[in-house]
Design brief:
This protein is an all-alpha fold. The protein has one domain (8-22, 53-113, 126-217). Helices cover 66% and strands 0% of the residues. It has helices at 8-27, 30-38, 43-53, 59-71, 74-96, 105-109, 132-145, 151-170, 176-200, 212-218. Helix 8 (151-170) packs across helix 9. The longest helix has 25 residues, at 176-200. The radius of gyration is 19 Å and the shape is elongated.
């Protein structure tokens, strides 16, 4: 079984996004940037984006966490599940308190500009900052990247998380700044989850690194 490791390639890729994203936010206007991204639409992307964005929904982390818990290890599954729950709680708290007045593109532009919307996608109006989808996707992909030593796969997971974030802007559910902040939050809370597990559980609890189904079938650790 692959032991968790620091996914340096993943962190480098996300770090590159953070650096480039900061420059983009500093040098561009919020309105102009969103109009530019909105103008990139194509029928193929319209068909793909709704599917990509679902990877940041609560259902996907739940299914992935349960699958890891049962078939890989409780530690892996709990890391994924707890980090997802922390991001859900944090983003929802911020959306409804400090940033309750953060409107989404639908309200921001109103009748001043005719945005392209993907047919069939339910649009939201308020509680736009930060993006929960971006936070969840980046956090989940970070946990997954910890369990592979293949750098190309870590980079691929980072790109996948960022594509989920981009899909929220493409669908005009968020501005770029919303997903930028959400992605950073997702990574920070995922790192905090890993740190907490290292501090309070450590690596001495052997059953935490055995598939739960196999443990249930044998009724004891295979180390005995």
């Amino acid at each position: 079984m692959v032991k968790p490791t620091v996914p340096r390639a993943y962190l480098f890729t996300i770090g590159l996004f953070v650096a480039v994203g900061a420059v983009v936010l500093l040098l561009t206007d919020k309105r102009a940037l969103h109009i530019t991204i909105n103008g990139l639409w194509t029928p193929s992307l319209d068909a793909l984006a709704p599917w990509v964005t679902t990877l940041g929904d609560g259902l996907v982390p739940t299914v992935v966490s349960l699958g890891l818990l049962l078939f890989h290890s409780p530690r892996f599954g709990l890391l994924a599940g707890v980090s997802a729950l922390l991001n859900l709680a944090a983003t929802q708290l911020l959306k409804h308190t400090l940033f309750a007045d953060a409107v989404r593109p639908l309200v921001f532009f109103g009748n001043s500009y005719s945005l392209h919307f993907v047919p069939g996608v339910q649009m939201y109006s308020y509680n736009g900052f930060p993006s929960g989808h971006a936070a969840t996707a980046v956090a989940l992909c970070f946990i997954l990247a910890m369990y592979t030593r293949r750098q190309w796969l870590q980079v691929l997971l980072a790109i996948l998380g960022l594509l989920v974030a981009f899909s929220r802007v493409y669908l005009s559910q968020h501005f770029f700044g919303d997903v930028y902040a959400g992605g950073i939050m997702g990574l920070i809370l995922a790192l905090a989850t890993v740190f907490a597990f290292e501090k309070w559980i450590g690596h001495d609890v052997l059953w935490m690194d055995r598939p739960l189904l196999r443990f249930a079938r044998t009724g004891k650790s295979t180390d005995h």
